[in-house]
Amino acid sequence: MQRYEAVVETAQQRRFVVEVEGDDPVTATARLRRAFGSDVVVLTLKASRRRV
User: Which uninterrupted H or E stretch holds 33?
Assistant: First the structure.
């Protein structure tokens, strides 16, 4: 598993910086959508230096 740092924006135009784990960027984005809802926009997603 890789840890990713993401900046997400919700439908209410609130931005959050979060860390999420996933096997690849696609699964990390899917986890963000489950956590924030389908109307979330992932602005940036980059691999964190810390490994799980």
Answer: helix 25-36
Distances (CA, A) of 52 to 2, 7, 36, 45: 6, 20, 22, 17
Render pLDDT for 16-28 as a digit per residue (tens, 0 to 9): 999 999 999 999 9
CB atoms within 10 A of CB 3: 15
pTM: 0.80
Tokens 């489950």 locate to 34
Q: 3-state DSSP call for residue 13?
A: coil
Distance CA 16, CA 22 (A): 18
